[in-house]
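In the current project phase, our protein records have gained a structure token line. A sample record follows, to show the layout:
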Amino acid sequence: MTALGSFRAELDRLVEQFGRNIRQYKSNTYDEAGLRAEFLNPFFRTLGWDMENKAGLIPQYREVEIESRTEIAGRQKRADYLFRTDRVDRFVCEAKKPAETLLPRYLDFMAQFVM
């Protein structure tokens, strides 16, 4: 299977799993940690990110740093995921449990991470 075909198969699997169990995933009992373990980590792994640090790098050199403390606009912030290439911070991902409504205040929070 090609890389694109493999990605598509995994994406289809994740979407199908979420759709099949959407009521449970959108309940207040399903938390962010579950979302990250069941959906986000596999999604980013399928995109080729080293989610488990198989390269054995120290935290500040890893491709993906989970629960990262990073400096944004001169202040320390915590990001659920910090992604790097060539040891340069590229983007962050902030996870929210599916039951949570995304409010405008999250836009302000994420604006702090614009690099």
In short: The longest strand covers residues 75-85. The radius of gyration is 16 Å.
